[in-house]
Amino acid sequence: MAKKASSFRNGAAAAKAKPSPKGVATIRTPLTQDPHAVRDTREKVLEVAIGREVRAFRKKLGITVADLAAATDISLGMLSKIENGITSPSLTTLQALSRALGVPVTAFFRRFEEERSAVFVRAGEGLDVERRGTRAGHQYNLLGHIGSNTSGVVVEPYLITLTEDSDVFPTFQHEGMEFLYMLEGEVTYRHGSNLYPMKPGDSLFFDADAPHGPEVLTVLPMRYLSIICYPQGSAG
User: Fold this and answer.
1) Contact criterion met (CB below 8 Å) for 82 and 54
2) What percent of the chain is modeled with pLDDT above 90?
């Protein structure tokens, strides 16, 4: 029997959903990340990048600013200015910090030199790839891939197409989280012991460690977006 998904309730006990006048669930407790926030525009300034790395390495060692000041013979005031990106440390100062923190001098420039990647894919130009579902007649079109990045998370966006030649395959299971968004056709999608009838515009977000996949191909052809994310260094 199909089980209807409750908006934002499963797996989010802290977030309370309140129906709006039109029946659309809204979040009452704020999420931790502001999607409209603007990061410090000074991030590309060398002093700011160095300061953030010095602070990060110090906290990783579990020492205070006073401890670092004593180990480097740099005043508390100067260290505070360095960590806050207010002043530019000399090479001698950087060398003292590198010895005390146990990192090479070049480590302080990591964030300043780090590139942020982007992948642009035109319509119809995604890369056809083979995954486990390919054997069941599921066409996977990879829409972009960025490996090592600043977030520590790998995200794989796929456009998946199922046709009359496709088989049901409700036993996918892999590490990470997955988000589905229906574009065309209809399907009854299984996640664990639950079944979700999905039509264009419907979405499903779930822990991919549980068995999941299309249980009933209701209306074909069918297309949906599948966005899989998992920690860097894991198998995915």
Assistant:
1) yes
2) 46
Phi-psi region of 176 (alpha: psi -120 to 50; beta: other; left: phi over 0): left
Among 153, 100, 110, 145, smallest CA distance to 127 is for: 145
Closest CA to 167 of 214, 222, 224: 214
Asked if residue 134 has pLDDT above 80, the reply is: no
C-alpha dist (Å) from residue 64 to 58, 88, 101, 215, 234: 7, 21, 12, 56, 33
Other C-beta atoms closer than 10 Å to the C-beta of 196 total 20
Measured CA distances, 8 to 113, 145, 197 (Å): 39, 28, 17
CB-based burial, 31-57: b 16+ in 10 Å, e otherwise: eeeeeeeeeeeeeeeebbbbbbbbbeb
Q: Which residues pair with 217 in a beta bridge?
A: 187
The predicted pLDDT at position 36 comes to 60
The 10s digit of each residue's pLDDT in 19-49 is 444 544 555 556 666 666 555 544 457 888 8
Q: Cβ–Cβ contacts within 10 Å for residue 165, how many?
A: 10
pLDDT surpasses 80 at 208? yes
